[in-house]
Each structure stands twice: as structure tokens, then as C-alpha cells.
């Protein structure tokens, strides 16, 4: 597979003006990226705050979705200062949120135990999965039709069923982590999750058809032998950067491997994450293929996606650069996959010894994408992370790319330039965001607005405000 790396210019400009598109026959009339700030809301003046694994439980990159938009209403979820799980809604553009506590309190001070929302269009239910890290989960679902008629139904806790330890009786695994709801093109709902633990876990899927949940099974394996430049490992976990359907119904997943054996990296203070991989499915996640069409695995087996499968790596990197897991991905209007990844480039360090300090000092984010010719290209986003944390990636209706960086900063690049003109459009001024932020992936396609959920900085366990900020993208 031929690969070429494109490096963006080193300059960065703060502003909200659109970046002029390069004049091509395909993109001559398309506007470049731009941001117009349209409003801010407060969900909770006193949201739960504690730092765990360098992050917050109300703002973690792998929350899919902490924000969700449907039928002119936006939904959000978080934990209050008293640890109660709350689900809220507002009419899009409204300044206030209606809130309902759903009968569950966060068990541990662990930022993995996020709240995720999903919506099944087949029956109009809102689904909630929360409070898990390699143990049991809690699941709550709304009454049928609640999201189909938001104006006609009040928002109260009585609209939701009792918290459950299963999916309506379906028990998945006793070691459950990283729930992500995915809406299928037909309107069903899938749940992606990890079975197992960090360094020895498997990705799996379950599916809700509007009447019942079914376990589809595991699709990635923790077995096999990875031979790095420094040592080998025989157990690992595939960490997803996302799992998303494009407009044509293809399911895409970028990932990185985390090895169990620290012998694969140069220093015990680094991360055992290595390589960026990619797989796709054309049958709703039942079978998986590498980018070149080589069969890679079958959900539920026999034959899961393993570290030894051919053709999976689209951007190779060893375990010495503190490559981050679980960043972000998107697909463009032609169904081509895009991802954002981050690590410490070799020009700064060939052996990171403290992944937090080294990423803060030298970490950079990169835009990785497949172009129209089928080649993989990578562009460095010329904005220092100044953080150990993750970046979110979204595309607007013109396929311009926006990287929502730690602290709520937003950089962007135009599709017309081949994503070579990355620059900073918003520097996060006035947000006082802690670090990682969450975005509403669903709203952009519906009304061209980017909503960012962030929590203000605090210290210790002192609660702090949880807010949203809206940006209008090119119309």
C-alpha cells in the first residue's frame, strides 16, 4: 500500500473568517471552514468534578454520545455534584434544559464510568448506558415514542424505566467498558463495548431491533503475538477511535493496539499503544475487512480480527511515542474515512519516558484520511496540544474538517486544499475548559451547528459548571 505524508504549514491563525478554498473544478464554489459563535448554555452550575486517569467523567472522548440531536431537540447526560445521573433535553437553540434524574448514582471516582446516549428510530426510545469500567453496567431506556414527540410529552423521570444490570434481560459480560451506541441506517440501534480489561480485551456488538436486544458477539481478539522492535507481547486490547456508518451504510472503525507487555516500549513511563489500524464492514458489523478488501474477521467467530491479520495498519508507529488511544473519526460525503490521532513526533523524542509530561510538552495531533485515489494521507495539525488528552474530529456539509482540541480550541482545514491549510479558528478564550471536550456528532448534519460540551476547571473535588457552546458552520 502506498503512503505519503503531507505536512501542513507551521503557521496558525486565530479567527472566525473562512479559509479560502483552493480553486478546483470540484470545489471551486464550496466555502472553506468557518465558525460563528451563536450561544452558550449552562446544564449544571455544580456538576460532579474529580480528575481520574487525567480526565473527567462528564467529558471523555469515548462518550458516544453525551450529546445527541433528533427531531429539533438536543439531549445531554451527566452526573451532578450529588453523583446522580441526569438526562436532559432542550429545543435546539434554546438557552435552558429540562432535566430528569434517572435513578442511578455513580459508584466510583473513575472517569471511565461515563454516560452514553443512543436513540432507536424504530420505536422512538432514548437509551442510556452508564457507570462501568471492567465490571457490570447500568442500562435505562425511555418509554416508546418519547423522542418522536418531544413537544407533546413532558420531561420527567417517569418517562424512563427502572435502572437494569442487563439489556432487558440480556447479560453481556462481567467485564464491560466503553459503551458506544450506533444508529444503523435502518433505524435499529447497536451497542459497541469492550469485554475484558486493558491489555487483554475484545470489542463486541449487541443490537436492538425495536423489540429486543441480541448479542452479536465479539469481533476483535486479544490473542496473537506482536513483535516490536524492542520486545514481544502475546495479549492486547484494540482501542477504537470510533465506530460509525457512512451515508452509504458502510461501517468504519479506526483503532490502535495496546499491548499488555511493557517490554514492547523503550520506557515504562510511556504507553504500549502502537500503529493506527482500520477495518470496515458492509453487513452491519457481522464481517470485517481490511482497507484493501482482505477478510479480517467475523463477529462472533470463527476468526476474529487479530493483531496478526494482514493489511490492517494504515499508519505505522512503534510504542515509543505515546500514541493516544480512543481519539476520533468521521466519514465524508463520499464515504471516505478520516481520523485524528496524536503522539509525540520523532523530531522531539524517539523514546517518551513520561507519557503525560511528554505529550503536554511535545504532543501533536494529525489528520489521517483516505483520498479519492485510495491512498492514505496524513497531515500534522500545526497547533501544540499542550495537553495529554484527546482531540475530536468533525466534518461539515462541505467536507471541511474541524479538530476540536483540548480546552475547546478549534482548528480547521478546507477540503478544497486537500486539508493542507490547517489553522486555529477558535482559541478557547472565555471557556476555561478543563481539558477534553465532547461534541454532538449528530447535530452538524441536521442544521450545520457544532455543539461542544465542556466542564470548567476546578480543583480537588469541588464541583464546577458544565456548559455547551454552539458554533454555526458554513451554510
Q: Mean of residue pLDDT?
A: 94
Overall 3D geometry? globular
Calculate the terminal CA-CA distance, rounded to whole Å.
37 Å
Main sheet strand line-up:
1-26-25-24-23
- Main sheet overview: 5 strands, mixed
Report helical residue fraction: under 10%
Give the low-confidence spans. 1-27
Count of separate DSSP helical elements: 2
DSSP strand (E) fraction? 35-45%
Number of strands: 33
Give a quick precis of the structure.
The chain has 475 residues and is mainly beta. The chain is 3% helix and 39% strand.
Describe this entry's structure for a reader:
The chain has 475 residues and is mainly β. It contains two helices and 33 strands. The chain has helices spanning 355-362, 443-447; strands at 3-5, 36-47, 67-70, 73-79, 84-91, 98-105, 115-120, 125-130, 138-141, 176-183, 189-197, 200-208, 213-218, 226-227, 232-233, 236-240, 244-245, 251-259, 273-281, 287-289, 295-298, 313-315, 328-331, 337-343, 364-370, 376-380, 392-395, 401-404, 410-413, 423-426, 438-439, 449-455, 464-472. The strands form nine sheets. The chain has a five-stranded mixed β-sheet with strand order 1-26-25-24-23, with no helix packed on it. Strands 16, 17, 18, 19 and 22 form a five-stranded antiparallel β-sheet that branches. A hairpin with a 7-residue loop joins strand 8 (125-130) and strand 9. It is globular. The two termini are 37 Å apart. The model is unreliable at 1-27 (pLDDT under 50).
Amino acid at each position: 500500500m502506498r503512503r505519503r505524508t503531507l505536512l501542513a504549514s507551521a503557521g496558525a491563525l486565530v479567527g472566525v473568517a473562512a479559509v479560502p478554498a483552493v480553486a478546483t473544478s470540484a470545489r471551486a464554489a464550496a466555502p472553506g471552514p468557518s465558525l460563528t459563535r451563536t450561544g452558550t448554555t449552562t446544564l449544571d452550575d455544580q456538576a460532579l468534578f474529580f480528575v481520574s486517569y487525567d480526565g473527567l467523567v462528564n467529558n471523555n472522548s469515548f462518550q458516544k454520545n453525551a450529546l445527541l440531536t433528533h427531531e429539533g431537540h438536543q439531549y445531554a447526560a451527566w452526573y451532578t455534584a450529588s453523583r446522580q445521573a441526569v438526562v436532559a433535553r432542550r429545543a435546539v437553540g434554546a438557552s435552558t434544559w429540562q432535566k430528569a434524574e434517572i435513578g442511578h448514582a455513580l459508584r466510583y471516582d473513575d472517569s471511565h464510568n461515563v454516560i452514553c446516549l443512543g436513540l432507536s428510530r424504530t420505536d422512538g426510545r432514548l437509551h442510556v448506558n452508564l457507570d462501568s469500567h471492567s465490571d457490570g453496567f447500568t442500562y435505562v431506556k425511555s418509554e416508546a415514542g418519547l423522542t418522536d414527540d418531544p413537544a407533546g410529552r413532558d420531561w420527567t423521570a417517569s418517562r424512563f424505566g427502572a435502572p437494569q444490570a442487563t439489556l432487558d434481560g440480556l447479560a453481556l459480560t462481567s467485564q464491560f467498558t466503553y459503551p458506544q451506541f450506533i444508529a444503523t441506517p435502518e433505524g435499529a440501534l447497536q451497542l459497541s463495548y469492550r469485554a475484558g480489561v486493558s491489555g487483554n480485551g475484545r470489542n463486541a456488538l449487541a443490537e436492538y431491533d425495536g423489540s429486543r436486544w441480541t448479542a452479536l458477539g465479539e469481533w476483535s481478539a486479544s490473542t496473537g503475538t506482536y513483535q516490536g522492535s524492542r520486545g514481544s507481547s502475546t495479549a492486547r486490547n484494540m482501542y477504537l477511535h470510533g465506530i460509525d456508518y457512512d451515508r452509504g451504510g458502510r461501517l468504519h472503525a479506526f483503532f490502535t493496539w495496546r499491548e499488555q507487555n511493557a517490554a514492547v516500549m523503550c520506557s515504562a513511563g510511556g504507553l504500549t499503544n502502537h500503529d493506527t489500524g482500520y477495518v470496515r464492514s458492509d453487513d452491519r458489523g457481522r464481517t470485517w475487512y481490511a482497507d484493501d478488501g482482505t477478510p479480517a474477521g467475523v463477529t462472533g467467530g470463527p476468526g476474529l480480527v487479530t493483531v496478526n491479520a494482514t493489511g490492517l495498519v494504515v499508519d505505522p508507529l512503534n510504542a515509543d511515542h505515546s500514541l493516544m488511544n480512543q481519539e476520533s473519526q468521521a466519514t465524508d460525503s463520499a464515504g471516505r474515512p478520516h481520523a485524528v490521532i496524536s503522539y509525540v513526533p520523532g523530531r522531539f523524542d524517539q523514546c517518551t519516558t513520561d507519557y503525560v509530561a511528554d505529550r503536554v510538552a511535545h504532543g501533536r495531533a494529525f489528520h489521517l484520511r483516505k483520498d479519492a485515489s485510495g491512498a492514505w494521507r496524513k497531515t500534522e495539525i500545526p497547533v501544540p496540544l499542550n495537553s495529554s488528552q484527546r482531540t475530536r474530529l468533525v466534518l461539515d456539509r462541505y467536507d471541511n474538517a474541524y479538530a476540536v482540541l483540548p480546552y475547546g480550541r478549534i482548528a480547521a482545514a478546507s477540503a478544497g486544499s486537500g486539508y493542507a491549510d490547517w489553522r486555529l479558528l477558535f482559541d478557547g478564550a472565555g471557556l476555561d475548559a478543563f481539558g477534553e471536550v465532547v461534541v454532538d456528532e449528530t447535530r452538524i448534519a441536521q442544521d450545520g451547528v457544532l455543539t461542544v460540551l465542556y466542564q470548567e476547571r476546578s480543583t480537588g473535588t469541588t464541583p464546577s459548571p458544565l456548559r455547551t457552546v454552539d458554533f454555526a458552520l458554513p451554510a
